What we know:
Keywords: Carbohydrate metabolism, Glycosidase, Hydrolase, Polysaccharide degradation, Signal, Xylan degradation. With about 300 residues, this protein is α/β, with parallel strands linked by helices. It has 9 helices and 10 strands. It starts with about 20 loop residues before the first strand and ends with a helix.
Amino acid sequence: MFSALVFTSLSASPLAAGQSKFLGNIIPGSVPGNWDTYWNQATSENGCKWGTVQPNQGSFVWGQCDTAYNHCQTKGIPFKYHTFVWGSQEPGWIGGADGKTAVTNLIKAAAGRYKPQLIDVVNEALHAPSSIRNSLGGSGSTGWDWIVTSFEIAKSAFGGGGTKLLINDYGIVNDSGAVQRYLGIINILKGKSLLDGIGIQCHQFNVNTLAAATITANVNSLGATGLPVYPSELDINGNSEADQAQIYQRVFPALWTNTNIKGITIWGYITGQTWKDGTGLVACGNVGCAERQAMTWLKGYLETTKV
């Protein structure tokens, strides 16, 4: 299983090289020229989402998803497929289709093309549940049968190949109540041997003002299940470059040193190209790129803090 590996790159020295957990980032439509300087795990930013890969019911468009996956294959680093079942960025035609058949065809098509180390099978079940959930069983006897069905389909397609099946959501690391609701789903899936790991999105709107002790407590509550935890979409901004760096110094160590966490994916790093303004770590222009204070700190921290 890939979790036992030490994560390195074949032709670069990313920040977490030689460590027991990865530090990854997204790959957008193309791979930035300095990407391998920093990261050793990748998630396609939008390229593997259902609305991107199947805009029309009868055909698939894999180009952007291929870009991220092929780069990981070349570099020998983990790839995460993000995502199959999610209430956002679904194709427009899905409302007129049989949802279970459609998602089964999607998952089978992806399984025939990729061998990812990680998959976000269901994304944002608590906040943006899929529009096809009723066709997947709705609430059913467990209260979350549509999620169980989604994982059963994914396990049938990817099981036995070393792929870890994850659930992923935001608003978890900052909210003990949400942790308990999330655990309700997690324990159902775990009881059916369908779940291999727990994704916690860590966007700036959840972590910028969050105390390190709260991060630790909530991650430990999830880790008590015995499943690995993966902060999946970490981004941080601030009122200034220095403020961003200070927030990183509070938030990142609480995640990185927690033994329940097996890898972190930052959600973008080039200033002006990130989902949320001000979350970039490197500013690039016509004459090259300059690392912001948060990146300077992050590099130094990972050089001296080994896990």
